[in-house]
Description:
The chain has 508 residues and is an alpha/beta fold. The protein has two domains: 143 residues, Rossmann fold (3-Layer(aba) Sandwich); 242 residues, Rossmann fold, CATH 3.40.50.300. The strands form four sheets. It has a six-stranded mixed beta sheet with strand order 6-7-8-3-9-10, sandwiched between helices. Strands 16-17-18-13-19-20 form a six-stranded mixed beta sheet, with helices on both faces. Helix 8 packs across helix 18. Keywords: ATP-binding, Nucleotide-binding, Repeat, Transport.
Amino acid sequence: MAEPVLEVREVSKHFPGTTALDHVSFAVRPGEVHALVGENGAGKSTLIKVLTGVYQPDGGQLRHLGEPVVFRRPIEAQRAGISTIYQEVNLVPLMSIAGNVFLGREPHSKGGLVDWRRIHAEAAELLAGYGIHTDVRRPLASLGVGAQQMVALARAVSTDARVVIMDEPTSSLEPREVETLFEVLNGLHERGIAVVYVSHRMDELYRVCDRVTVLRDGRNVHSGPLADLPRIELVSMMLGREIRDIREHGVTSFGEDHHTEAEPLLRAENLSSKHAIDDVSVAIRPGEVVGLAGLLGSGRSETARAIVGALPLDGGTVWLGGRRVPPGNVAAAVRAGISLLAEDRKTDGIIPSLSVRENIVLAALPRLSPFGLVSRAKQDRVVDVFMKRLRIKASSPDQKVAELSGGNQQKVLLARWLCTQPKVLLLDEPTRGIDVGAKAEVQALIDELAGEGLGVLLISSEMDELIDGADRVIVLRDGAVAGELSGGNVTEEAVLAAIAAAGEDADD
Length: 508
């Protein structure tokens, strides 16, 4: 086996309050496509930033071509032959396509001027190999996202790279472009160029990758040939399904199943959105908790956003109580009785500069402010009710929400949507990043809300939370429904099997 072209040995990286990498070892060899996988927070992004000079490790060693090396800046890693293609295109939109391909390494004429004639000719020839036939003098922004991604790929490969790091490279690509990408990977293999391939799409991993490294909670839990690892074992490693201590009141604070025979309160039918979800249908009855399971990138969050109108739809309809909810209109969805607690409370949730009171009443202001006049008394009554009911710990309603713990911030967001009096509540990772005590309180509240007749869609990466909390579980994979489980069939083994099922027969 060839010596690694790029390697980290026992690397650790710490940030205030957290360890992002904990003695991680990783190596990629010439000509191999090495999968780097793990769920959110596993350490993948931090490891890539160590490899590319964005971060320097706090411990351990980085080796390049067998020699110890320190990349203090990304440009030093690039000069060593390490190129990165990010999920979000990291180029200059207003610059020409050709200018982006040769950015920072423009050829010059004998007179010292940039040789644009050569740049245009070489860029056009290079991009033709990636299925892009267009005037390379056009601004990059004139291309679609998928074509821009292919330009980024062409640029990375054309820089005399020894290692190409691809972060979710197919997330914006059409099927035809994906096939072109796989042809490029074959070419890189033949030229001895190493590829670090980050993706949550199982079919892709098993099609193009030779080896795999699995990260979980900042640690390396497995490295080895991918062909030797059954899909269900890979999924189990990523999700961390190991024996764990059982808390005093069981694994979760969910109670018994919420039995209901009523007609669906919400029906989302055949929802489709380009590059996100494909023909996804979800029904939720009053008092029912429906779980959405799947790996990161499977379309869970996108489904919730589509239902509430935050994701543009190419097809499909949403019905609430027999009435059609206008597509792509969040305000109309909220008025109809659909509310979404987003996954990222920092970016899509709290407004840190505002108080607890202001954050809670934000969504209910139209109801609390008839004729445009804000009633402080009405606000205070609502805030008092929900601070007590959710046991929000704050010095007063006027305390800045940014000063609260993560668990209490999450409760503030729950209060915000509950005071709109929703009929259906979409919860995307409602207990992520909060402590055990707050998690138990949020789980108990979900149980209580369902008991009161609220329809709940629960998205969670924690298997115990889905199994104990949901009456039915819809499993998504690559943006489509892979299966639906209910009653006694909602088990860890059944969910994992549905997640890993695609192509399993092909592995046998």
